Amino acid sequence: MKGQNNSKKYSTIHYHDYLELDKILEAQHPRSEAIGAPAHEEMLFIITHQAYELWFKQIVHELASILTMFGNEQVDERSVGTVVSRIERIEKIMDLLIQQIEIMETMTPLDFLDFRNYLFPASGFQSFQFRLVESLLGLPEEERITYNNHHYAAFFPKEQQERLDAIYANGTLFDAIEKWLERTPFIQFGKFAFLESYEVAVDKMVKKEQEAIKTSSYLQEAEKKMRLKMLGSKDTYFQSVLDKKIHKKLKAAGELRFSYDATVAALFINLYRDEPILHLPFKLLSKLMEIDSKFTTWRYRHAQMVLRMLGKKIGTGGSSGHDYLNETAQKHKFFGDLHNISTLLIPRSELSDLPPDLKQELSFSFTAK
Q: Coil, strand, or helix at residue 220?
């Protein structure tokens, strides 16, 4: 009986029907053809953007699954590897989306002008799925570049606006990662206090490098001053992690987003990444930075393509075109705090040794009975 039920449930299917190719392949309707002045390049324009939307849908699918795994107070550490692999998949999709711009650029500016007038007032800004991606990743609403002085969701139907609002209310990937970092248990372990040992190591490193600069025989005085300034000290950028009050001020000013505890945890993971248990957490944080970099690259390449196609013309939706896109490439970041961690890193040679009991906790140990 069980086999019979399965045979009814899983009937044979044809490739064409499974992929619903009739719907997909009949979904291209160039407006230039309908008006009676067919522009050859409009088909490329439509298919490229439809491909973007399909890949945005896949990214949303991956992010939703990641949030399901990371959205609880207690994260099953066995799922971290799955999360890393899905973030890697998003990264590879972004590589593909960047490459698609090269295909679009086989169309010349004059080719585009053959049908551009038929696109008003449509705009890529109206891609709801891309706004879903940005929101799920955790782009801060208050940091979004406004579109013609309107809220980024103003051009979507009420139902879609509510869906975007729900993402921020329920928690983004940024929120989930922040909470996960805050629960890192190794920052204070027995008699080991990570920040105290880190401060000692920073002080030692800074003094050693300051002395090397001051006693250098090949640097001019002006160069020495410049290098000493670039080196910093415990009283400069290291204060963002050594002094909780300074971190709070920087966060209030919008220069930092992660909580103090999450920042300390991310720093610990980066510094002691070679400990076996920290391999995956470090890889996860690295992949999140890659996602940020790939989105920045995609935005920048998009802006350059628009500059090539339109020069300084306004976009079809009324935006400032290239200028708007270029500004989003510079300012729209998801995990900028992880890049800031690089400022706080010190050489492995300066790191304090971990206590033996903590080192064992951070290792994989097996005892044969």
A: coil
pTM of full prediction above 0.85: yes
CB 200 within 8 Å of CB 352:
yes
The DSSP secondary-structure symbol of 334 reads S
Q: Can you list the alpha helix ranges (DSSP code H) found in 73-220?
A: 80-104, 109-113, 128-137, 158-170, 173-182, 194-214
Tokens representing residue 143 in the block: 């940091």
Q: Distance between CA atoms of 98 and 351, rounded to whole angstroms?
A: 39
Q: pLDDT tens digits, residue range 316-356?
A: 554 557 887 888 888 899 999 999 999 899 999 888 889 88
Residue among 204, 165, 143, 203 at smallest CA distance from 337 = 143
Compute, in degrees rounded to 10, the torsion defined by CA atoms 327, 298, 306, 31: -120
Residues composing the chain: 369
What distance lies between CA 127 and its chain's CA centroid?
A: 18
Residue type, 253: A
The closest of 337, 340, 335, 332 to 299, measured between CA atoms, is: 332
Cα distance between residue 103 and residue 184, in whole Å? 44
CB contact set of 81 (below 8 Å; sequence gap of 6+): 280
Kindly write down the DSSP assignment for every residue of 233-291, as one continuous string.
-TTTTTHHHH-HHHHHHHHHTTS--S-HHHHHHHHHHHHTTTSGGGHHHHHHHHHHHHH
What would the pLDDT profile of 128-179 be if each residue is shown by its tens digit?
999 999 999 999 888 887 766 777 888 899 999 999 999 999 999 999 999 9
Residue 339 and residue 185 in contact, taking contact as beta carbons nearer than 8 Å: no
